[in-house]
Structures are given as structure tokens and as C-alpha cells.
Amino acid sequence: MRKDSLVFALSGMFFGLIVGWIIGTQQAGPVRAPQAAQAVQQQTANTTAPIAGSGQAALLDENKIKALEGAAGQRPQDAAVRAELGNMYFDAERFADAIKWYEQSLAIDPRNVNVRTDLGVSYYYMNQPDKAIEQFNKSLAADPKHTKTLLNMGIVRAFGKQDLEGAAQAWQRVIEIQPDGVEGRAARQALDNMKSAHPGVGSGSAPGAGQGPAPKSK
Q1: Phi/psi of residue 154, nearest 5 degrees
Q2: ω into residue 215 within 30 of 0, thus cis?
Q3: CB of 11 within 8 A of CB of 40?
Q4: Contact 123, 152 (CB under 8 A)
Q5: Contact 109, 78 (CB under 8 A)
Q6: Closest Cα to residue 204, out of 176, 168, 180, 175?
Q7: Fewer CB within 10 Å: N-end or C-end of the chain?
Q8: Which of 198, 204, 214 is nearest to 173 (CA)?
Q9: Hey, what domains does the chain have and what are their CATH numbers?
């Protein structure tokens, strides 16, 4: 998973999104765009289930994994090393293992919205959109303006829950927060294409911070 680009694509009659945008580091650093999400979902009149992987998983460095696991064992309160293990397993498309380490990291540092967004995306790849949304809501409760969480919320609502209105609200919120940034431009393009295919979508107001459309769905 590379740390220097946000991958976003539009296609066809509706729109396609490369699912699984997540934050790459536990700092306020660059975005990670997973190789696991290089395939674009083609959308027509209806949304579809999430992609479970693209067949382009990163090779897992077993030596590094062993070293990190050893460090985790020696440092039971080290959230960062557990998050790094989660990132490595995510890149290798071993999402169940990624979830285990992200959860351990969050047990130590529960307010880390970057790791919580990673965890939500991992749940999404495991076809558990409700758990993904639960994590995104927790992330937004800690940081209501975390645009990458909101972007992912829109993806999961659209693809995982077939909730186009909820997706539109999440993306509209990104536009309000960051109108001229990378995430804002991506959200605007997705929203415009969705409205072109579904003119009635997105006419409501944006949800409040940390809230999502009820009763639906890092």
C-alpha cells in the first residue's frame, strides 16, 4: 500500500470508486491508497457489494512481521507497533489479521482516528459494513472533520448498504470541510456523478458531526 496517493476513479453511467481509502500512518501524514483496491466497481442503477480484494496484495515480509510481533510482545502498551502490524496485514489483504492488530492498537489508544478508520475499512473488506460504519462513527465522534473517515463513510454507505442518500450526505460534508483539497474534489466529483444518474439524491441537508443517516450504516 503506497503512502503518497489517494486513488479515485469515475466510470460509466453511475460512478465507480476505488474502495478502501485509509490513512497511511498514525500521524497526520500522507494518505495510503491500498493496492488491494485497484479494481473499480462499476455502478449502474444499483450499488453492489464491496470488493474483497484485487489480487494485487502486497507481499508480506515475514521477517518484519516476526520482529514487530516480538516488539509488541515486549511492549504491551505500544499502540504504534500494533498499528504497523495492522497496516502490513491490510496491504497483504489479510484483513482478519489486520483487524486483530488494529483492535489491539485502539485498546491502548482509542482516540486514534486514523487507526479507527483503517479498522473500519478492514471490516468493510470483510463484508461487514455495519461494523465499518460503527468504527467510522466513533472516529467522527472524536474528530467530526476527519475527511478521510467521511469519504470512507460515503463509500460504505453507497456500496455496502446501498444508501445513496447517506453517501451523498457524507460526501457533502467533506466538500463543506475541505472544498479545495484532494478529498473535497474527490467527494464533489463522486457526488456530481451520483446526482447525474439519480437526480433526487443529495437534496437533503448534510448530517451533523459524527452522525449518519438513520437507520443505516472507517
Answers
A1: -60, -40
A2: yes
A3: yes
A4: no
A5: no
A6: 168
A7: N
A8: 204
A9: 22-197 (1.25.40.10)
Nearest to 218 by CA among 165, 162, 164, 155: 155
CA distances (Å), 83 to each of 14, 89, 101, 197, in order?
A: 35, 10, 6, 39
Q: What angle do CA 77, 82, 88 make, to 5 degrees?
A: 170
Give the CA distances from residue 107 to residues 56, 112, 116, 178, in Å, rounded to whole numbers and listed in that order.
30, 10, 11, 30
Across 123-127, 169-173, 213-217, least confident range: 213-217
Question: Global pTM?
Answer: 0.72
Burial (CB < 10 A; 0-12, 13-18, 19+), residue 14, is buried
- Least Cα distance to 98 among 75, 126, 139 occurs for 126
Per-residue pLDDT reduced to its tens digit, 68-87: 999 999 999 999 999 999 99
Mean pLDDT of the chain: 74
Burial of 176 (0-12, 13-18, 19+ CB in 10 A): middle
